[in-house]
Write a structure and sequence with these properties.
about 300 residues; Helicase, Ruva Protein, domain 3; Rossmann fold; 9 strands; seven-stranded mixed sheet; 2 domains; alpha/beta
Length: about 300
């Protein structure tokens, strides 16, 4: 039997597609192919390994080809299948929100370390700024079942995605979602022990250098933090001190390219101390933490 006469089993389909995506410069061609095929077959990706000899229907092959074409054109897999794994949980995504990334899990880890350490005996109130899909705040809510949360975003459609994920993971009763441009819409008397944010932090020139799979598909407003990348962060630093309890923390995920600038912004602000920069697994400076210590007894 010639190669052209051999049946298109799932394994053959995966192998061909992997090579095709590799030629199109996909960063993870085999994983992309498996995720998309499992999605079309409505099964777990691991289940493919027991079905390699199965011959899919023409409808399955048609749907798979359509997704592969869109992936080859640069559309992210997460948007194609409508979800992304984060902290071992699946979160719904749409092109109204950034795709949750593994490096953001470090922001969650740093937050949990402080919450379970310094604030272990307190009734915690935690704020996330720029909730997006809700991956961070929902994960924190799952890991801190006694805490209450407020999460803000300027985009109504992003808040819809976050609400869906909070309901899916059963934390919607403890996560209040608020439409707000940074902290502008929060009541003046609202206070939190922790304020967490993965804000827009790319400078314009850094944005222009992004891969098309990010630049052409993910929401621009959630990526660009201003001409220098620090403009929104500087505003947030000023706003956050009005909503932190004394001794509370501001935790930020930023680009390694501006991490030093953000560190200096916090060090120059007299109401913050204990400014710490943390690296991710790639040894890139990624998170900046600062403790709010008001210079007077009155809240600033």
């Amino acid at each position: 039997m010639s190669l052209s006469e051999q049946p298109w089993t799932l394994l053959r389909l995966l192998n061909w597609t992997t090579n095709f995506l590799k030629e199109k410069k996909a960063t993870s061609p085999r994983l992309d192919a498996e995720v998309l095929l499992a999605y079309v077959l409505n099964c777990e990706r691991i289940a493919l390994y027991t079905r390699f000899e199965e011959v899919p229907s023409e409808e399955v092959k048609r749907r798979f080809r359509e997704l592969i074409k869109r992936r080859a054109d640069g559309e992210p897999v997460a948007y194609l299948v409508g979800y992304r794994e984060f902290y071992s949980r699946n979160f719904s995504v749409s092109n109204d929100v950034l795709i949750p990334r593994p490096e953001t899990e470090h922001l969650v880890v740093e937050t949990l370390e402080i919450a379970k350490g310094q604030f272990a005996r307190e009734q915690l109130n935690i704020l996330e700024v720029g909730v997006g899909s809700g991956a961070v705040v929902v994960t924190l809510a799952k890991e801190l079942p006694q805490a209450n949360f407020v999460a803000v975003d300027i985009c109504p459609k992003a808040l819809e995605v976050a609400r869906k994920n909070s309901i899916t993971h059963g934390v919607d009763q403890r996560v209040e979602l608020v439409k707000s441009n940074l902290l502008e819409s929060l009541p003046g008397d609202s206070r939190f022990q922790l304020i967490v944010s993965n804000p827009p932090y790319l400078a314009m020139d850094e944005f222009e250098g992004l891969e098309s799979t990010v630049k052409d598909y993910e929401p621009i407003k959630a990526l660009i933090g201003g001409d220098c990348g620090t403009e929104l962060i500087e505003t947030l630093i000023g706003q956050a001190k009005r909503h932190l309890y004394p001794g509370g923390y501001l935790l930020l995920e930023v680009s390694p390219f501006i991490c030093g600038k953000v560190e200096k912004l916090l060090q120059a602000e007299p109401n913050y101390d204990s400014v710490i920069v943390k690296k991710d697994l790639a040894q890139l400076e990624r998170n900046v933490l600062a403790r709010y210590t008001p210079v007077s007894s009155s809240l600033s």
